[in-house]
User: Fold these one by one.
Assistant:
Number 1:
Amino acid sequence: MAPFERISVKNLTKSFENADGGKKTIFNNVTFELNPGAVLRLSGASGSGKTTFMNVMSGLIKPDSGSVFFGDTDITSLSEGGKDRFRAENIGYIFQTFNLLAPFSVIENVYAPLAFAGKLPKNYKDKALESLNKVGMKEFAAKKPYHLSVGQKQRVAAARVLFADPPLVFADEPTASLDRNSSELVKNTLLELNRKGTTLVLSSHDPIFDDVKPDIDFDLETGVLS
Amino acid sequence: MKYAFILKAVLHSISHRKFSVFTSIFAISAAFAFLAATGCISFGLASTAVNSSLAFPLIVGPAGASDTTLVMSTLFNTDKPAGTLDYEFAEKLEKDERVSAVFPIARSDSYMGIPITGVESAYINEISRGFSEIGEDIEAHDIFSENGRKCAVIGAKTAARYEMKVGGTFFGSHGSVGDEDSELHDFEYIVCAVMKAVNGPEDFAIFTNLKSVWEIHRHGHHHHHEEAEEDEEDGDHHEAAEMHCVHDMCVDIGNKHHAERKITAVLVKTKNPVFTAALEREYSENGFTSATDTGRTVRKLLTYMNKAEKAAGFFSYGTLFLVMIMVFVTILTSISERKREMALMRTLGIGKLPVSLMIFLELLFISVFGTAVGTLGGHALLAFCKPAIDFELGINLEPFFFTGIEIRGAAYTLLTGVTLSLAAMVKIYRMNLVEEIAKD
């Protein structure tokens, strides 16, 4: 993977309508830049808007205003299809739960995003098995997700990220409800990618990540960037 | 590769939701099986009726018999005859210049619920396509030449069902099928021949010599007569005389010779349709007989049958439509349940189009597969049940005949399936799944 070009977040604002009709601002006029291989840490209490920020940054949710540039490409101005293609080729995700597509086998979950995008590399099955092997899940390649524990599912999600080797990874509470071993495995996978130049956007309350020094820390609760 | 993977994903998704997909396909299949059965049975009945009406343009029966009774009790063997008439009417018709052939028939006993019909050899020659089995001493073209024997000619399907072979014997229960007043004196018949299949009601019939029928009834008659004489000696003459009239054949107990030559109908071949109309009029107005133009009566029956078929078709279409709505609701519910899955797909960069296309293809698969399985399964079921249906309805069912009602049903189902699939696809396409999940 070639290191991703600089990410520029410019004047990003997002608010939601409350149940009483009022507006709740999640984040307001956020501007920062991330170099390739940087770590952006999102902090704040549950419900402060960390996931929403990730969704806006990855083009899944439209911002009220502002833009997110990946190099020269403003993801907020891309068409839906353009955003889909961009995500499939450039962004990897690991979520707290619901990481895998239930109808697909473990190995298919690893290569599905690129398969749907029509961007599968040669020997993709071997590469997918290699990724699964790195997270200790090779023997489960043919299993369906409902056969796996929460920790095993997270490891498969990590293998998916390894397989796609994207320039940018969003990790949203990736180790919540995992045992120590699984947490270590997921963390090591993310750090390995980061060492190779992958930009990491991390949101986690797990102390296991305390030793990861972010380039930027964005507290969604206070709106402070540091 | 991309579209191959979408197809693979559809199959995975279907396999993952086996139960709901199976239920949906089963519901569509059941509705189609019903549609196939309706169409094939209606067609079988109609074609049998038409073929039979072409063979015998005129039927003459006893006075008071309705057109339908005359047709159903003679050509289809399904209705009880309305009474009897003298054999002299058949002789009179035979001499009529407008008539090319007459076939007197007399419904007699029954065997296993199948009426035994007394006929002459000419009738067998007329309807049969040869014999699969025939007795060594039997003349194929004059099968009932030996008057003294209770010779029986068996229809192909009756013979197959009851394993009746030439030389075998069976006992007929005295009295017509459906005749609640029938007596239970048993008469022995000998199987003289088994007819080859003619693909008509004759395959489900048993024929015997008309003269044997008269002989059987004369015996029955003597038996009753002896009982009556004993009763008479007891001074109960009037009551004994009534007891003689226990069967249609014995209706004219006062005249023994007439009772011996009673028939239930005459099937008539006329030289042209004008003569059919004239003879029908004459034999309906003479006060002793009734007559019907077979073609006209069958057309009337077919009109009713068409109405029944249309009604059945209407309900079948209604059922199919409801089934499709049910399938659509099931899919919509599952879409709602699958929002997270689809949102994850979108997050992973799987586009709106592939995601909504998957839903479209899933629904389309259910519609097409349900229609195909239902159609083929329905016809296969009919093929499996053909012997029983044929026997019960006296028709020759063509289990793999596709009727217009069925083809239209398939077209409507596929059209509805495609429309509903497109609607679901558009709904998914227009949803912002990630925002919806975020709101939840």
Number 2:
Amino acid sequence: MAEDLLKKEEMDENDELLEEDDSQKGMFMTFQIGKEFFGISISYVNEIIAMQPIAAIPEVDDYIKGLINLRGKIIPVIDVRTRFKMEPCEYTDRTCIIVIDVKTTMIGLIVEKLADVDTIAEDSIAPPPSLGRKEHEHNKYVYGLAKTEDNVTLLLDPEKLIKQDDIVAVTEESRKEEQA
Amino acid sequence: MAEEFNTESMLDMFLYESGQLLEKLEGIILEKQDADCFDDSDINEIFRVMHTIKGSSGVLMYENITKVTHKLEDVFYYLRESHPDDVPHMELVEKVLAVSDFVTGELDKLKNGDTPDGDEKQLVEDLDEFLGRLKGEIKKQGIEMPQANRHVEPTQFYITPVAGDDSHFYRISIHYRSDTQMSNLRAYSATYALKEVAEDLLYTPDDILSNEASADVIVAEGFHMLLQTKSSKEEVIALIDSSEAEEINFDELTKEEYGNALGEFGREDAMPAPQPVEAAKTDDKEAKKEGPKPGDYVVKTKEAGKGKTLAKNQPKQQSIISVNVEKMDALMDLIGELVIAEAVVLQNPDLKVPGLELSNFQKASGQLAKITTELQEVIMSMRMMPLTNVFQKMRRIVFDVSRKLGKDIELEVIGENTEVDKNIIEHITDPLMHLVRNSVDHGIEEKAEDRTSIGKPAKGKITLEAKNEGGKVYISVKDDGKGLNKEKLYQKALEKGVIENKPMSEFSEKEIFRFITLPGFSTKEEVTEYSGRGVGMDVVVKNIQSISGRLDISSVEFEGSEMTLVIPLTLAIINGIVVQVGNSPFVIETASIKEFVRVGEDDLIQEPSGEEYIVLRGECYPFIRLNEKYDLPDSVNKIEDGIIVVLEHEGSQVCVLIDKLLQEQEIVVKPIPPYVRKVKGLSGCTQLGDGSIALILDIAGLLMHDGERR
């Protein structure tokens, strides 16, 4: 019975996503890290909250900053700057957390500064050049470059950003545990 | 929409009801397994269960379930009607269990969204053969044999439910628009809705579900119902889904008109009877008349005030509603939030202005605290379930395994009403099953002679006991079998290389018994179907530890052994002490704290390798500096300045250095989000009174980690 319900909910959610995709197509939340502008498809974004105290977790990757309490929900936050292996910087009052929902996992992204919500036409998005950029590393999370007005926005794939491997590793581990 | 909704809820209903019925059925069977035969009420009950499942599976068109239950129903019909003398009771018990297993299997498939495709042929043949034999035996004795259930043409007379003074009679005709799709299902949903309030309900055409052509009839001629109910006209109208309906005619009838109208609806013998007739009897006749069709749902007379009883429901289920576990969990979470929010308000720093007069606030907050505590207790008690069902499964296992192994074993069950949190029940069922199997398979002696020769009764005995003591639940599985042989265990452990090579005298009795919980250890030479795959006890222990419980083993050779699971009553809320290390708060479960001490540098022993130990009252304990282990900045480093917490888990102790104690409080345990890799030594997190997050230390994890490091 419960499974049926769950399935139904999942389906509902998918429906919702699809619907949202139509109206939110091409809309991106853009933010600034260092000098670069980055964009995330708005369909992933749940909400934006101000910086708040983070409870650190020991023995995890350094870009996982810890846990925050989002109205009773405990969600992990990652620092996008550290994720990109940039020098960490001080959190100011412009720093904020974008809460995204990726494959039902809620995760907060710490970004230095929010920029805007932009509509980016599909034809203005170009794939990232495979050669030429200094660090190939970054290209993993960047799936496209978009020209807006006078600067270039790097479009991020949140699924890759939160590191696919992590999620897979965790589920495999838990599955193993369950089997045992 | 409406019909979709209905089939779905019907399936849910079917799964739920059938599941409950099967559980009840197993209960009856196992209770009577040792008796010589079933008594009349049992036979009636089993018959009724089979009949109900047959009926509802028929409606949902699960043919294999229908066939199997129908066959068993035949068998019990025969038993009920002709009371044969020498029924092979054991065989009968096995047959019923086989059917119950089959149906359970199919229901599981349905639950997982698969099609129930189990092959019923073998089972049906077996039952046929069994029934044939029963009848054959009777024939030999020359007693006249009644025909099987289906072939009896019962004298049909219908007894109209007694109408109370406040009953109303209505004739309802629904005319659907001519382009209405599946009007039969719409009509069915109307009858389904009306059943809730009906004392009696008749409709025509009456084969709406089984006959698709009835849809055309309904569109052409309308759908007519005759309803006897205590509800008012408005209430009834509200129940009928009027979408797609072109016209609904609603006439109130007098009692006499109603009586006359019954004839039109195919009840020849329509005179209202003066007294209600025994429900089971009516049920039976009616069922035969209507078969497994929607007509099966025709509602019986019932006492005033019991608005919702369907014919099949038992009166005792009325005070119970089933709630989706997710909703319960959500409520539980919310109440957890409330407890935290309460703390945030009551300990708000804004209130701590010196000289502020707050007496009214204090009174009000006292009241609030009382209510939230009560609320918490209520939700906890809602999640508590008796162990009855779990223990019932154990009965089944003892029954199955002991018969397969040819051992004569009696199972005694004590305290099955002990209540435990639902989550915990889910976690202990498998381990308990394993322990019981072990007792039957390994515990009790192979042969009865082995028992009688040392003065024990030939029949083995297993005692399953649950009790609630001091916030913990003890569930023990005790057998009076051969017990554990320390020498053998030790030799075996050495052979398998699961222990260090030390002389036996260096291990305590408990330690030796605990060998059997080590991975890769199984004392049984041969692997049997039930146990002895060598993956057993360590998994049991692991499962139990995952709900912060433990397994105690005690045994006396030749007298028997006892395995006791000690588990907490609930997982969701624990009593904890909040401590601080550096800038991070941690929570330690109060139950695992032995003491807090301050020690000096003198009590610290440092090994050349860097390992540290603390000597307390002449005993040496391993020592963990949380700040170093978890790399926490700004924390106390000199042990004189901090506090040592002595923690105990399953008999081993560890000392942990912390900076300071903050407070003691009830902690609502939340899991660390799965995105974050599992950290050893942390079991979850929680919100503190000020909304900040604290990590919960897992003592077992800390000890394990410590052990590995060494």
